Amino acid sequence: MKFELTQRPRRLRTTNIIRGLVRETRLSADTLVYPFFVVEGVDIKEEIPTMPGQYRWSIDRLYELLNEILKSGIKSVLIFGIPNVKDEFGSSAWDKNGIVQKALRYIKKYFPDIYCITDVCMCEYTSHGHCGIICGDYVDNDKTLEVLAKTALSHAEAGADMIAPSDMMDGRIAAIRKALDNSGYINTPIMSYSVKYSSAFYGPFRDAADSAPAFGDRKSYQMDFHNSREAILEAELDISEGADILMVKPGMAYLDVLKEIKNKFNKPVALYSVSGEYSMIKAGAKLGYIDEMSIVGESTVCMYRAGADILITYYAMEIAKLIKEGKIG
After folding, report:
1. What is the model's pTM?
2. Residue-wise pLDDT tens digits, 50-63
3. HEC readout, the chain
């Protein structure tokens, strides 16, 4: 039987070449950021139990990871520091000889082509595990701004190319921008964790960074996952305070929010595919329930399709390989 169809969308799906020509979402390793954890000590490459294939690295062994990153085609990293000593105020966060500051100086000396983004938050550095200065049982917003600004400035002085505050304190972008500008770092951009939800997807990260709160939770400063309009407000405030890039975190379960942010604002938008997302895929693959790289490729394309300009992910090197092999792109 012959049908006279005016429109046949399948015409544009018949071969790899035509599918590539009309593809709506394009991927590049240039847009990937690889996050990693650096610790004090010597000769440390310690696998994170809840994140198979991810490690805590001492500075003297970072060359192993950084060579692998460059070989994959990735140019950008996000650095998380884990200090030996924590106190109530997180004072090692802005120490000139702190773990992130030392890592930055090492990378800039031996791997100058790597673009270094630094996480600015207090949870890894405080004895109580909260993202700011505690007054009673409450995180004091304005007192925390002072230490966040000092920490960001110390990172810039040590060689950070970009600052990424993840604390979710009100006004922290303005405080950090002022501190950087007043010290001559007017060209150091800020990638704000603008839309960061209070999420169970962070569980493995807290194991990796030893940053679980000693009491309570972070719901008084991280966003309620029931809300999406609030995300618009947070992004608007960050832009007004000087944010150069907006971020949505977590990734997979928040693509609707990512799409809203992308459509609403004329700023680059990053998406952080977090530890829980990584670990779920790893666990499912280990059990034989899913094909790991097929899931990674598909979920990655979905994140870019929803609006990500930048993707921060522990799978960054695997994704770069998939792109290079033409399996996604």
Report:
1. 0.93
2. 999 999 999 999 99
3. CCCCCCCCHHHHHCCHHHHHHCCCCCCCHHHEEEEEEEECCCCCEEEECCEEEEEEEEHHHHHHHHHHHHHHCCCEEEEEEECCCCECCCHHHCCCCCHHHHHHHHHHHHCCCCEEEEEECCCCCECCCCCCEEECCEEEHHHHHHHHHHHHHHHHHHCCCEEEECCCCCCHHHHHHHHHHHCCCCCCCEEEEEEEECCHHHHHHHHHHCCCCCCCCCCCCCECCCCCHHHHHHHHHHHHHCCCEEEEECCHHHHHHHHHHHHHCCCCEEEEECHHHHHHHHHHHHCCCCCHHHHHHHHHHHHHHCCCCEEEECCHHHHHHHHHCCCCC
